[in-house]
Specification:
With 337 residues, the protein is α/β, with parallel strands linked by helices. Helix content is 40%, strand content 15%. The protein is built from eleven helices and ten strands. It has helices at residues 20-33, 61-64, 86-98, 110-123, 151-172, 187-196, 214-230, 250-253, 274-288, 302-305, 311-329, and strands spanning 7-12, 38-41, 56-59, 101-108, 128-133, 175-180, 200-202, 236-241, 295-300, 335-336.
Length: 337
């Protein structure tokens, strides 16, 4: 009598990105075809790192076959980090073994990748671990011309939003400061700014040195508004990469009230009132020149990351999910797909 193969588990960590469901769906289908049962671990490491194995969802071809059309994550997501405490890491491994899992696919950013690495080390061969990198920021060193998954969808939706904002700016003769997602990289801001032909796109990569002062940013924005006025235009849209916040000196950071940090000690940039502070400072500086300008600050981030993936990302992420399953079923472990 042959023994049924042990189960494959899938979990998602970090923040959402368009295409997560396509990875889950394709990985599940590939494993099920081989007769391997698949479990969705709900909410990343949140429950299993406390030894709680009740938050799981059985994944079958029947329930995942169409989820690739949708944004979000079918099995939830969280930033819970098991690497901060050895007990949590041990619980995560024990929980998986109790669930009869000997294969794990993690989907997430660098923090989840690090957690996957540590799970792989602690499991010491008992669980094979494969990671699918997920970030809409496009900040991984992939082969030329290959963006990270979800990036194209986020840019696509971002362009649609900015296109509408541009019409509003022109109609109402006002300026918009649009803060775009992308913690460590300005690719999303650049992609949206170039595609829409925004008046100005400001990225951390364009400044030399480790730190960028708030005054320097204000100077650039004020200069752009005044130059634009000289052309007879009192409207405009500036796209600003949120990563600019991380390059501010400590003294300037103090001006941004109530800075929160997540479980991985990253500044919760989306919660920082960066656009409002810039707007205030720019208006103050313009006042010195006797110029009054209406400025609206707008964050776009949450609108982009749970959008339904465009076909590019749908196809790309289904390839990733298929390949992750194929690799792990063939005995592979300790790798990124």
């Amino acid at each position: 009598m042959s023994i049924a193969p042990k189960k494959l588990a899938i979990l998602v960590g970090g923040g959402p990105a368009p295409g997560i469901n396509s990875v889950i769906g394709a990985a599940t289908i590939r494993a099920e075809v081989e007769g391997v049962e698949v479990l969705g671990i709900k909410d990343g490491f949140r429950w299993i790192m406390d030894g709680d194995t009740s938050h799981v969802r059985e994944l079958t071809i029947h329930n995942v076959s169409r989820i690739h059309f949708r944004g979000g994550s079918y099995i939830g997501i969280s930033r819970a980090n098991p690497t901060k405490d050895d007990k949590h890491l041990e619980n995560a491994v024990t929980s998986l073994l109790r669930l009869d899992v000997d294969k794990l696919i993690t989907i997430g950013g660098d923090d989840t990748a690090y957690s996957a690495l540590k799970v792989n080390e602690m499991a010491a061969g008992r669980i094979k671990v494969v990671h699918v990198p997920k970030t809409i920021d496009n900040d991984l060193d992939l082969p030329h011309g290959i963006p990270t998954f979800g990036f194209q969808t986020a840019r696509h939706i971002g362009v649609e939003i900015v296109k509408n904002i541009m019409v509003d700016a022109q109609t109402t003769s006002r300026w918009y400061f649009v803060i775009s997602m992308g913690r460590k990289a300005g690719h999303l801001a650049l992609g949206i700014g170039k595609a829409t032909g925004a008046t100005l796109t400001l990225l951390p990569e364009e400044f030399s040195g480790d730190k960028i002062s708030l005054n320097h940013m204000v100077d650039v924005l004020v200069g752009t508004i005044i130059k634009r006025l000289s052309y007879g235009r009192s409207d405009g849209v500036a796209i600003l990469a949120e990563g600019l916040v991380e390059r501010l000196p400590e003294a300037d950071l103090d001006q941004l009230v109530d800075i929160e940090r997540d479980a991985h000690d990253n500044i919760r940039i989306a919660e920082v009132n960066f656009g409002e502070i810039l707007k205030l400072k720019v208006q103050e500086r313009l006042k010195e020149f006797g110029i009054k300008s209406t400025i609206v600050s707008k964050n776009i981030g949450y609108e982009l990351r749970c959008a339904d993936p465009i076909p590019f990302d749908m196809e790309y992420t289904r390839d990733l999910g298929f390949s992750a399953s194929q690799f792990i079923l063939n005995g592979g472990s300790g790798a990124m797909i």
